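Quick one - inputs below.
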Amino acid sequence: MSDKEPLFSAKNRKLLKNPLGSDNPITVQVLGICSALAVTAKLEPAIVMSLSVMAVLALANVIISLIRNTIPSRIRIIVQLVIVAALVIVVDQILKAFAYEVSKQLSVFVGLIITNCIIMGRLEAFALGNKPWPAFLDGIGNAAGYGLILIIIAFFRELLGSGTLYGFKIIPQAFYDMGYQNNGLMILPPMALITVGIIIWVQRSRNKSLIES
Amino acid sequence: MNTQSNTYTFLYASILVVLVAAVLSFTALQLKPRQAKNKEIEKKQDILKAVNVASTPENAEELYNQYIVKAIIVNSDGGITSEDKNATFDVDLKIENSKKNVAERKLPIFTFNKEGLGEKLIIPIRGRGMWGPIWGYISMEPDGKTIYGATFGNKGETPGLGAEISKAEFQKPFTGKQIFDESGKFTSLKLVKGTAQGHPHQFDAVSGGTVTSKGLEAMLQDNLSSYEKFLKSSK
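Output:
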């Protein structure tokens, strides 16, 4: 790789774009499903979770990429874990200090970012073999792909399950007066899984190259 | 440099761990005051919730200062040991409840007063649920017998089962219950399954949350019993 490569060359743009669609961590690689089910009952926690994962993944990718040539290969997984765990604790502390209500809702799931397969996956697959800038873009891209799906799921779950979006009432009271009811099932995790399934279905029927033979 | 040797690996791991620990300690120390403030505001909101005063994190402080007119610490004999509002607020029930000798426990009581509602006594309680601590605030009419409102919190009870104690539907029926019977004997509230409606000394268990409900029953009994003498004298 030459030093003169532009910051947003075609290759680097791909790092950002692919995870949003054809290489999406949730719908194509099917990673990080557990947190996608847990935090998507409302838009707000889903957005905060996406941003937290983005911060952790981008920073971890850059740090690991910076020290990639010094890491003894026998303990590389442990080194990655230590870096990710430290970043997650920092994010958790910052949320507790500046977004207390949200941190209560996310509770244990912030800590569980450590176990989010997307993060360890990107560190192993990308950051260990690439320079910091592409690694940063890869982190942002994958976290954005993760966040995109989370927000889509949360959008439908909050709208149909609570009749609100980001806490604001969307479905007018008149509908309720006429007998409309929120679908309580949407708030429960199983409907998140079904929503993920529908998104995967839609994506694969539009992009045939994703279908395994 | 040989990055695969044992010495290098050990050195690398040690330095990394020390560095990370330093970064984490620094962050924790920097953010601690803000986090403590958040906890304090949450506690004030909980206290207000026990008297059905809704608050937001922004106005909790103001409402608390306005409506909580007095906060005292009493002992199990009913004697007042402190009338300092801040000292009462800072009493840690976890420590107090771990004292074997009830006479040594500091028992905080908050007095709420709002025009039109009159005076209420708010008692903090703390106990054990199924997976971790549960806590709450019970507000009493000034007669010291009748419950005016209740709020319960939990750290990690099962959502949909034990964690239902934190929902308004569970807390509402506590209003009007009596913790003393007609002859003035302390009865606390007894756990029953589905038949407590209208009964002054009973509350309904959460279905599927039996352990949590039992924990709640024990929490009421343990915490309120030490206030018995004080409440009796407050008629």
